[in-house]
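tool=predict chain=A
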Amino acid sequence: MADKDGGVWADLVGQQRAIAILSAAAAAARDPGMDGARHAMTHAWLITGPPGSGRSNAARAFAAALLCDQGGCGDCTICRSTESGAHPDVTLVRTEQLSISVAAVRELALKASMSPTVGRFQVIVVEDADRITDHGADALLKALEEPPPRTVWLLCAPTAEDVIVTVRSRTRQVNLRTPLDSEVARLLVERDKIEPALAAYAARAAQGHIGRARALARSEEVRTSRRQIMQIPGSLTSVGACLRAAASIVELATADADHRTGQIDARELAELKEALGYGTKGARPRQTAAALKELEDQQKARAKRLQRDALDRVLTELTTWYRDLLSVQLRAVDPSAPVSALEGFGLINVELHDEIVRAARSATAEQTLRRVDAILAARDALEHSAAPLLTIEALMLNLADPD
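tool=predict ok
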């Protein structure tokens, strides 16, 4: 029996309650005759939690625990192949597109109807269930209403409300919490061998987002980028400065998206051309052109999503600056007290203590709140496909003059 604090569960930071629920369900699945087994295990789960809390890790760990004879030891071939996505009975669905189409969901439903190949269950993990289209949700609902006896669906989403209510009602929900900074720092030290002071900085700056904390701890480039973002509020001294800052932010987000998609796009195009026999004698020009156009549209949608995600990261980082200002202005933080990177309620940007105190004295709490509201409004606008440059330009002008 795998240790509930180790094995496949080791990377789930601060999620003891969720681990207890999922490990009990896995035990019940392996031994249906045990006390309470009928109530512990079900065929469809919805795992929710804030970004970076470990939803996908929890789903993969649960899948491994369901298939592993030891309940998720973390060392056997089953656990390792499940984690890597290579297990034949575990389907991992993660989209880089803006949505998951009805056609994709129907393929999953067909997969779910099949018997397991080598294990006791067929497990379908949908890491972005909140991106399933309405028509896709209808197709998923049919699969959940008539579940094969040896299929388990694991859906992941930020909140339960992000999933259509009819699908949500057919699942058992497990919610993950935002881990404490000290828990994230300890993980970075113990697993990634990060120096404690750097781990503390990364955990505090990431605010419970484990992936972001790891990136900050392991990459000087990422830390430099964050420092540049923290300099933006002080640079907004004129209209021209605001427009230049907006252009720079959007350019960097676009470059980040292009960097992340470049090799993927080229590989997908080469694979599609090979599959279509592009350029060969037997190829059908009209059919080939339609398939290439569809791939181009999908790649553009992916780049748009990744650009939006990069912009959202910038706005999230900026929010921490104004949160710190407001904490000082409302005296929730004593600026004269010794600063700590992890303990208690304090500044997120501890290393910018002096700059934050000076900025807090030059504005009112009401102005800071309006600036925070402006950031939240910009995030919402980008989520609803507003033009990135115009949105960020308007935001920079609001941050410079919130009155």
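Residues 181-233 form one domain. Residues 232 and 245 are 7 Å apart (CA to CA).
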